[in-house]
Design a protein that fits this description.
Elements lengths: L1 E9 L2 H15 L5 E3 L6 E11 L3 H13 L4 E13 L2 E10 L2 H15 L13 E7 L5 H9 L5 E7 L1 E10 L2 E11 L3
Antiparallel strand pairs: 1-3, 1-8, 2-6, 4-5, 4-7, 5-6, 8-9
Helix pairs in contact: 2-3
Bound molecules: adenosine-2'-monophosphate.
Adenosine-2'-monophosphate (2AM) binds next to β3.
Length: 187
């Protein structure tokens, strides 16, 4: 059997609640966006996609080896923006400040998963926290205006102590995420 997997950095409930208050502010624009529910907010390090169950042990082994190479680190969730650009927003994100360690960790995860046959990222990793996905241009200008007010907002510190292997189940009500394993950094 195959599972839909990704490697993530999870967030504390406190920071999720904080972010959610700002998301509520953005929702008021009535833009046509599928907002990520607070409980699902996470940082994706590497999307694996369809993953044969038999590979999970090996994935965990690889993640443990790369986790040993990285000390715990601190970053900040800071600012907001859209991919690919404000004329055609598709993904609404919050930015990551002090992301050097996260970038190194992502690079190692990408390389070690490539050894197991997962496709390496073609694009440079751009650390971000997806908070919504735009469905249509409705009220897009209002949304962009409101997002601009979050440009300098500090959403809080994240102390990254572990990475997690996650399973995503696509349900009619949206994706549901389950933690398959948690790997401590620096052990
Ligand atoms: P992103 O939107 O922050 O890039 C779980 O589905 C996570 O994997 C999503 O939050 C998404 O993170 C990421 N992801 C990356 N590539 C993906 C893809 N091709 N399909 C679905 N999710 C993807």
């Amino acid at each position: 059997m195959s599972l839909r997997c990704f490697i993530a950095i999870e967030l504390t409930d406190e920071i999720k609640r904080n972010i959610d208050t700002y998301v509520e502010q953005l929702k008021a624009t009535k833009a046509d966006v599928k907002w990520v529910p607070a409980k699902n907010l996470h940082l994706t390090l590497k999307f694996l996609g369809s993953t044969p169950e038999e590979l999970l042990t090996e994935i965990n082994r690889k993640l443990s080896s790369i986790a040993k190479l990285h000390d715990r680190f601190t970053s900040r969730i800071f600012g907001a923006g859209v991919f690919p650009d404000i004329k055609q927003p598709r993904v609404i994100w919050l930015g990551i400040k002090d992301a050097e360690d996260m970038i190194k960790l992502q690079k190692n995860a990408d390389e070690s998963m490539a050894e197991l046959g997962f496709k390496k990222e073609d694009r440079e990793f751009s650390p971000h926290l997806t908070i919504g996905r735009v469905r249509s241009p409705k009220n897009k200008d209002m949304l962009i205006k409101e997002l601009a007010t979050l440009k300098e907002v500090d959403f809080g510190k994240i102390e990254v102590q572990n990475i997690t292997l996650m399973k995503s189940e696509l349900k009619p009500g949206g994706a549901e995420y389950f933690r398959l394993s948690e790997i401590l950094l620096g052990k």
